[in-house]
Amino acid sequence: MLKQTTSKSFVRKNISANVYQTLVLALGHLALVPIFVRTWGIGLYGEWLVLATIPTYLALSDFGIAQALGNRFVAECHNQNFRSAQEFLGACYRYQVLISCALVAILGFCVATLPVAEWLRLSHIAPPQATIVLMILAVSSAVAVQQGMLSGVFRVGNVYDRLLRLQGHHRALEVATTATLLLLEYGPIALAGALLALRLILYATVHVFASQTSTCLKIDLRLGRWRNVRALLPAGVAFLAIPISSAFVNQATLFVVNWKGGAEQVVTLNILRQLNRLLQQLSFILGNAIRPELTRLYLSDRSSTMQSLLRNSLRIFCAVSALFVATMLIFGGNLISIWTDGLRVDRVLAGIFALESVAAGALYIASSVAWSCNRIAAISFAQVLLNSLALLCSVMFYSRIGLVGVGVSFSIANVLCLIQVYCVNRTIHRKEHRI
Asked: In this structure, is the dihedral angle defined by the CA atoms of residues 10, 16, 19 and 24, taken in order, positive or negative?
């Protein structure tokens, strides 16, 4: 049985890998935007962003099964049920291949037969060129989804940080390749093709490392049946419900604010949430770092260590959050004014939205226990319901107190979700469940 110090060692590795990946993503975005603008211009760059966004929705085609599979794969290997683990992996792998191929084919048919370029109002990218770019990026997105099926293998070998670092290296190569092609004045098709090639290289590398990590990995498309996929669907849909509902509610909130307050209020809301994402990144780093380890501890019946790991993560987050909220309450208005070259935001409003981000971040970390043992369904339902109610409250209170009503509504919703997560966590710690 592993000691708690070993658990801390794994978590530290995961945190460092998450920090590395987050920094590469952020710095890569900051570095590429000016290069895109200077080489392609605003028009072509904007149309590229529109085309690049469409295939990313293929990531929803796995219905959250990749995350549910990761937990189930770890559980089966922990219990020495390697044949069952192979069946789950093989069945989900085959399912995802079929679904991805079907969706790419449907997208190709739609792009070839419908006036997509006209609907998207493309003027800098010709329709045939847009079709090629869309199809290449669609295949790249499908490969990325397929790669996600292998995450559980790295968790079994306690080398999940290796997968995160590989993804970080891949992003760094993407940035370097993109910058090089842009400076050499290549167009969208060449860039899309290069990104697909890098994605295939990453997939092959992940596959090789996964094969070396665990002796129980054997991807055989003949193994497993539909019942294996069906067993993971409830947990998978629950995993998927949270990001989809959050994206929908956030977009609906923007529409409400634009409808009632105008474009300036939309910009203010967007800036407040952009600042708050800095704090939420910390919650993502901590939550993603402890989740693989929580699964292993849960399977080893080490409830006290799980609670200790969760408490320590929340303490770190709360300590940083206190500093963040105090900064926003005292200097938030001035910081936003300097950053946006004159936009005025009341510091109390900045503080309220900072508190909302604290509650959201704490919720993400606290739900890690339920995530680690596929018990996320109840939390997903509550979060979808409470966020929807927060949206309705925002509509009702915006006319009276403006964006303050939006911030307060979502803060209360997140706190209520936290209470519900606390109850679920106590149930998990009290009883001996199995994934």
From this structure: negative
